[in-house]
């Protein structure tokens, strides 16, 4: 098994910066503000010669003992990650020095893990021994002075951790990246995290009845019915005019990147608010990128029958630009319809893995042209000769022919819909691209012989006399 290392500590001590440094990525959202990280973030890190799974957690130390707020649940998630990990990196702030919150956190961490490593962050430009001296009184062993931003002292810390970890060269280290990537997107507070918790069967993501609970894009690998998946929980995407906080701006950017990285996009709608312009914008964005789309209308159990009929009619009217959309009416809180949603996801996964020959695609192109020929352009007909698959994620069909640059938008939509219907691709849009061979005589001009030049002069003089 691959070793798991959790990073814990008080808010704003640099846990996400250390996570990004060790994973050589920007997966964790970083800002000079406490409480940015809330959910657990997983990533692969190379610790010397060992590959391990790194877990970024939310800050511990702001919740009161009798507090039932969101911050208390953030702390519970962080302590749960520490208890399940093979080793724990406890990060403290070398600039703030030893605090009462650190002493309380030491009492919480000592009983739940035997592999606890204290790292004193923000030690750049200072004497490592002076920075870490006061932290010996915490009783968790030798402190390691590091700089998560610059990477100072990390090699010494990682050598100490990997020396105690079990090393299995045959372990599956790439399992975090394998599987069908499903991005869950939507407006704030529509139930994305609740849906993920329902699919996983545990309270993996923090949920609250307020918008903006999820701030980062969290990738969660799991196995269902013997198949591997990666669920990506994203922050809610509001209209651009309503975004004023720079942290929310970066959260939205990461949500849009999650759509680009996904194999399948589940757009969650709120049944109590019907279909908004922002919902249509997110669906259109996924469709433009050629991503398979599942529409999940959440909170379906909380509305009346007459309202349900109105919402169905609205979906039929507003989603006409999708060819045979796959719509599921679900309740993420109670679980109704979620099983059918995952069944559709598995069906789309199998369709994406289906390989089709160039002869089959060319035959479909010939049938499409035969049923509805392309229009004339300056008296000449557009000729579409053959086609083949250009990619499967997204599904792309390359059409070769003459004058393909003149194909009208209406005929382009006709071809996209025809291929999608002929291949029986429900929920999977088809991107059609065109290729035209270069004219070998373009830019070339024949030189006239002396006899031809003389004949040309006689013709010009003859025209002038007339």
What does the overall shape look like? elongated
Q: How many DSSP-defined strands?
A: 17
What is the overall number of helices? 13
Average pLDDT:
85
Distance between the termini: 95 Å
Biggest β-sheet: count, sense, barrel? 6 strands, mixed
Q: Uncertain segments of ≥5 residues (pLDDT<50)?
A: 170-176
Helix coverage percent? 25-40%
Radius of gyration: 30 Å
Structural class given helices, strands, pairing? Answer: alpha/beta
Account of the 3D structure:
This protein has 466 residues and is an alpha/beta fold. Helix content is 34%, strand content 21%. It contains 13 helices and 17 strands. The strands form four sheets. It has a six-stranded mixed β-sheet with strand order 2-3-1-4-5-6, sandwiched between helices. The chain has a six-stranded mixed β-sheet with strand order 8-9-7-10-11-12, with helices on both faces. Strand 16, helix 12 and strand 17 form a beta-alpha-beta unit. Helix 11 packs across helix 12. The longest helix is centred in the middle third of the chain and has 16 residues. The radius of gyration is 30 Å and the shape is elongated. It starts with a strand and ends with a helix. About 2% of the residues have low confidence.
